[in-house]
Amino acid sequence: MSLETTQIQDKLVETFGESTFHFNQEKDIFSFEVAADKITAVILFLKNDPDLSFHFLTDLCGIHYPDNVVERQFAIVYHMHNWYENKRIKIKAFLNGSTPEIKSISNVFLCSNWMERETYDFYGINFIGHPQLKRILNMDEMVSFPMRKEFPMEDGGRTDKDDRFFGRTAQINK
């Protein structure tokens, strides 16, 4: 029997009620949102339910939405895969911008250990219960989180390049 998106949605709503919402089919990936405090329970359910069997965590990453209200300024996105049915899903949990934190799933999927560390390193999102949450790519001495949108992509005072050669339409002072 083929796993249908309606079956996934019905099981999630039946089990978690209003904690799962905004169900959407985006090309071949079924996506939905989860209340951040329920993420561990939802991921365990998706992994352990015999009909769903999402046993593979493909990716976990962070997103910064600085223009959103404070309660939705950060998001964690989880991509999971059911290899038996070749079905992929995307789960998004929004976090508070003033204290971005969410429970770690490193005890559910061991591979999330490094993914959570990378997300912490670049976005400053605290994964509660992570066994060794520390920087993984940036220097330990850094006090900022470089993927947050409040940091400029490059030095505004650079004079060693001409924006016209990079497809930008900035005016050049002559």
UniProtKB/TrEMBL annotation:
Native source organism of the sequence: Flavobacterium soyangense
Reactions the enzyme catalyzes: a quinone + NADH + 5 H(+)(in) = a quinol + NAD(+) + 4 H(+)(out)
Pfam families reported in the protein's UniProt record: Complex1_30kDa
Family the entry assigns: Belongs to the complex I 30 kDa subunit family.
Entry's Gene Ontology molecular function annotations: NADH dehydrogenase (ubiquinone) activity; oxidoreductase activity, acting on NAD(P)H; quinone binding
Domain NADH:ubiquinone oxidoreductase 30kDa subunit stretches: 33-154
Assigned keywords, A-Z: NAD, Quinone, Translocase, Transport
Free-text function comment from the UniProt entry: NDH-1 shuttles electrons from NADH, via FMN and iron-sulfur (Fe-S) centers, to quinones in the respiratory chain.
Keyword Nucleotide-binding: no
Enzyme class, UniProt record, top EC level: translocase
PANTHER family: NADH DEHYDROGENASE [UBIQUINONE] IRON-SULFUR PROTEIN 3, MITOCHONDRIAL, NADH DEHYDROGENASE UBIQUINONE IRON-SULFUR PROTEIN 3
EC number of the protein: 7.1.1.-
Protein name: NADH-quinone oxidoreductase
